[in-house]
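Usage example:
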Amino acid sequence: MECRELLMKLCDINAVTGREDTAARVISGILSEYCDEVSVDKFYNVIGLKRGHGENPRNVLVTAHYDQIGLIVTGIDENGFLRFTSMGGVDPKVLAAQEVTVHGKKDLFGVIGSKPPHLIPPEDADKPVKMEDMLIDIGYDAQKARELVSVGDVVSFRFPVLELKNNRMAGRSMDNRSSVAALVEMLKELGRIRHRDNVYAVATVQEESGLVGAFMAAWNLKPDLAIAIDVCHGDMPDAPSDESFPLGKGVAIAVGPILSREHTRECIKLARRERIPYQIDAEEKDTGTEAAVYSSALEGIPTLLLSIPAKYMHTTVEVVSLDDIEATARLAARYIAFRDELEQEGDSDDRT
Amino acid sequence: MTEHESILIGTLKKLTMLDGVSGDEKPVRDFITEKIRDRADSLHVDNIGNLIAFRKGTGMNKKVMLAAHMDEVGLLVTGINDNGLLKFKTVGGIEPRVLVGKRVRIGKDRVPGVIGYKPVHLQDASERKSPVKKSGLAIDIGAKDREQAEQSVAVGDTAAFDYDPVEFGNNKLMAKALDNRVGCAMLIELLGGRYPFDLYCCFTVQEEIGLKGAKAAAYAVEPDAAIILEGTTCYDLTGTDEHMVSTRLGDGPALTVMDRSVISDRGLFRFISRTAERLGIPWQVKSTVTGGTDAGRIQVSGRGVKVCTLSVPCRYIHTPVSVMDKRDFFHALKLAEETLAGLAGWLEGEGSVGEVGLGQNQPGGESDV
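Running the assembly step on the lines above writes:
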């Protein structure tokens, strides 16, 4: 499967954070094509092992979370409309007039409705519509709605993948299926290169609700090196230029206190050597990604963070570039395979 | 649904998948022209773009106009930024907040684009507390700069929502542009009838930007009476005050007493509602007086026209995901058919008020007028 089709297939999967169970099977099917072994842990982390070919292989953990932000039903009112709140960081401003799928007894189509502006009292006119003032319309009366939907059912956004210009793809859940696509592309690349180390390619759960899956992955696999793949902010006109990155300019390699100085330096060196387009993403704190978990897990795991720029993050129209996904995959694979060579080569412009 | 009803819904769905932002109604007009070519006695497209289909009457010297606008709300590309993003203005009334995170297609090549929003992580405290502002929105087609964008789109192109219809729930249909493809679908159907009066089925343009097309159509037709077929507002969501709901989904077609554009002809309103009562067709009064329709322009054309608006209630109107109840659509169509069937009698009797000389008693009037 080419990267484009792979990403489209991945974006079709529904895995609202904390409810990844059904998606785990699909992810596991995809990973098994490129791994020696695939297993699913108790929390539905999907763990693919690609064995190394060298002596005394070390264990490298590469993760991309596959859960997505969404909504959860909190009530069903007397007219059959559903009340809801968010699962993960959902901006209420992106919700008006969205199509959704309510994962009730069966999957139900719905749209998000809210009061029209002329019915909003003047004192609220300059405020965004609150999530509690919105509802999901599934087109049934209360009795039928209560038959089909229960409080606690999750809701995903319904949004197809669109192909834009420049190999750019738009849709919901590019955060973080674009990274899962990079994980798979990395495995493909590793299939073409001889590598010494065992690679645990893990699609993790519950990142959007507190980096939960990463904790289990780190504890269970106790790797020597962890590489987290996630999205970073793509550039937009009014986003701060040091916190957002242009699309199509390559993988963003994070540098900062929680990230391994040594590995980051070597990784940048390799990107240069292999002519893989990259940009530098300076992260002063915990990065908001699974890298934060790995860097302080167990006795501290040396950690790298590779990011794919995504515009309009946490909306239904996240935009990523396939070129950046491929650059991320190539860099991860080659760093795993060639990092020892770099150490042997040494480097004259070593900055430490 | 009966087989005939399925066909009707099929036509309506196809109509909603066409793009016809005000001023750019050609795809809709072409589709309708194909549909009605064999059933109209004559077809005419006027200068402004209205499609007027004529059915010769069987002898009565009266003209009846039916009107449904073909255009839909959408966007107009007004500029291309250096970074390749497209600036736009809304064509017709669209709230900025319903544009966030939506997909659109631009121009006749239907170039795909999305409308993004600043990620919540990057919004500062005041931005988080502010409603969506139109100025922060742009269409992203993936172009990396202006030059690349200009290869696909041009300033002046219109953009329509890119949403396919979905049937769901209990008899519900979600689609873009139900306002007013639902009226177009009814009008296509109504053209089949033959009546004593001359019938002009007018598929009008540019309703959403100020009822432009209807004015020209009414000028050309000079009707005695007109019925306007519409998709109208419906705010029957839980928590809305009773007097503000406008219409309720599933309660039948809505008749307008008054809105911002018109006060419906009292007699015609009563004739249509009595027809509904007589046949047991559910109907409701549109209870709010907001919004306007082609009725406003048609009424004041020529020597004046008796008008009434017959609408299908649509939730979330002027968004990409409007929702109607299919039964309301079938009932609206039935009511329109039955109204036309009896309209000749009304035109000769009660409806002829206004043609008698001043100072005479009005014939056929009712005491509760």
